[in-house]
Amino acid sequence: MLDDRASEFGRKVRAARIALARWVGDRADAPLADRPAIDSLAIDTKALDTELLHHPELAMLTRQEDLAAAEVRVAQANREPDWSVALMYQQRGSAYSNMVSLNVSVPLQWDQANRQDREVAAKLALLDQARAEREDRVRMHAAEVRQMIAEWENGRERQARYERELLPLAAQRTEATLAAYRGAKSSLMDVLQARRGEIDVRVAALQIEMETARLWAQLNFLYPERGAAFHGAPPHAKDSP
């Protein structure tokens, strides 16, 4: 059964490398670096709404909002008459005298309520839509990230509990059962069951560590540039529970 579980985990490792090769090519087969410290995050959890502005999707929505605001300004400028004055001096032939002309252009904005005002209102509605969509996405992503942070913190808490309490108790139970077996006070089956229980506890601890590390990676590389530069002592570290 242990060999079967090991084969299953081996399959997951190979599948993960295949998925990684999609993004990094042949470097997916490179040797792994040292295990990272998963008890610290590279993001500022206290300024999450500001941090999320660098998210690619939110950055795109911010650009769309800026574009809509620019279109509103253009539409508002079109509501004002664009007066223009042109002064020209013409030096003509000897048969004619030189001439100076002054041209004044005043556009007539007829039916402004149904033309210019309606255009401004339409652009303002598009701006409100773009702003509402961006704010909604910011709240959605902030909620997702906060949920991931809560799960990451819970994983660290559970991992510490396993290391502090459950793993030592499982090892002590195995040792006690083995001592009782040596004293002819328990059966070999009891020893095997205790040993299997200890292995199950160790596997459960590793699974919790794996899920916690997965959440750490997703949070740490939420912004690729910052995640790649994050090493050693991050700016926003938390004490281990």
Protein topology:
Layout (H helix, E strand, L loop, with lengths): L1 H23 L15 E2 L6 H4 L4 H24 L4 E7 L8 E7 L10 H67 L5 H33 L3 H6 L6 E2 L4
Antiparallel strand pairs: 1-4, 2-3
Helix pairs in contact: 3-4, 4-5
- Tell how many strands the DSSP assignment holds: 4
Strand content: 5-15%
Number of helices: 6
Order of helices and strands: HEHHEEHHHE
Share of helix, binned: 55-70%
Count of separate structural domains? 2
Which spans of ≥5 residues are poorly predicted at pLDDT below 50? Answer: 230-241
* Biggest sheet overview: 2 strands, antiparallel
Beginning-to-end CA distance, first to last residue: 34 Å
How would you describe this structure in keywords?
241 residues, mainly alpha, two-stranded antiparallel sheet, 4 strands, 7% strand, rod-shaped
Provide an overview of this structure:
The structure is a single chain. The protein is mainly alpha-helical. It has 2 domains: about 1-30; about 35-235, no CATH class. It is about 65% helix and about 5% strand. It has 6 helices and 4 strands. The protein has helices at about 1-25, 50, 55-80, 115-180, 190-220, 225-230, and strands at about 40, 85-90, 100-105, 235. The strands form 2 sheets. Strands 1-4 form a two-stranded antiparallel sheet. Strand 2 (about 85-90) and strand 3 (about 100-105) form a beta hairpin. Helix 3 (about 55-80) runs antiparallel to helix 4 and helix 4 packs antiparallel against helix 5. Mean pLDDT is about 80; it is low at about 230-240.
